[in-house]
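quick one: adenosine monophosphate bound model?
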Amino acid sequence: MTFNDLGLSTELLRAVSEQGYSQPTPIQSQAIPVVLKGGDLLAGAQTGTGKTAGFTLPLLQNLCAAQPGRGKRSVRALVLTPTRELAAQVGESVRAYGKYLPLRSAVIFGGVSIRPQINILHKGIDILVATPGRLLDHVSQKTLDLSQVEILVLDEADRMLDMGFIRDIRKVLALLPEQRQNLLFSATFSNEIKQLADGLLNAPTLIEVARRNTAAETVNQSIHPVDKSRKRALLSHLISTNNWQQVLVFTRTKHGANRLSGQLAKDGISSAAIHGNKSQGARTKALADFKTGAVRVLVATDIAARGLDIEQLPQVVNFELPNVSEDYVHRIGRTGRAGREGQAVSLVSNDEQKLLKDIEKLLKRKLPKTTVKGFEPDSIKTAESLQVKSSHPAGKKPRRTRNHECAKSAGNRSEQRNRRYANK
Ligand code: AMP
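yep, here:
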């Protein structure tokens, strides 16, 4: 199937071909005809499947097909997203795909000044992409009218519920006209999502593609066992020897992200950290620098990385394994997008074996392990030296000391402390 077969207008086809897409992804070939017909949609699709174009393209076409008469523009399509980053990325897609259409769009989210947003809304826009909190701020300041919305999209609805937005969503729904088209995208179908969908959607078409745990299959995954204290050196070594130019690195904590980013800079590797304590401006700049190649390594926490969309990201590194196995799948989903090959490497220290086991259980397979020469963990070195020792004359014991164990358990304790206080 090609994009031409989907019934999209020439303006949209032109924009799509400029993006370099030759074939629709499965979610696109299934969702686009349904949305073009005006039906409601319940789609199980995670980030990386091409879902954004799956709703944006037909949404743009529907809006164009039924242009109201002259007069001030009003918001006719509303896309709600859980995070600012996702809102910005969806906004970018709307602009890119709609570049040959006479429609105006805007993105609004919190963490930045509200004034410029008020000015944009005042001028009149057709498509609004927003996070729920700031959207309601505008409604309460009467700078936004949602009474003319024809199409509502809830993107990453499961994340919105995870992040506690259900009450905000319900408030927004109450502000919309009853007659409208509803599209709900979610990576998972929990009972809460089903409940939300039941109350929101009208005889929806159900589409489900590439379930969360199978999307990981286009990603080449491997494990490097290493001592915790040598992870940073190993990371620098891997980046330099493999000449990786664009690497997304995950740490468990914000503090860890900052520290690692600083250390990499000392090794002469340009890097930026992105996490919840950074201002929106700093996050946007870090992401932009990473996309243009001005910064080679982006160090991120799980929450900050959610919804990050970076074209053809080739390399993800788990500097630390996540506490929640599902986050591993999310993390590596940043690479190997839309069928492209990607590589995910995890640096795993001894104290992370349990986390690794949990991840392997979720993936239902063992991940291949390779030690990097010069970075073998002490446990392996000790085993080797014990073997050598056994053929040596008695009296020369290997230097495996109690102190060493203490250092390890101290590491474990600080690790546990970090985990407890980690506010990702
Ligand atoms: P999404 O799931 O919407 O976040 O999209 C994931 C990535 O796939 C984005 O980087 C898109 O630019 C890219 N993409 C979307 N549709 C296609 C397509 N038909 N062919 C190739 N890449 C695509």
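The chain has two domains: 3-208, 219-379.
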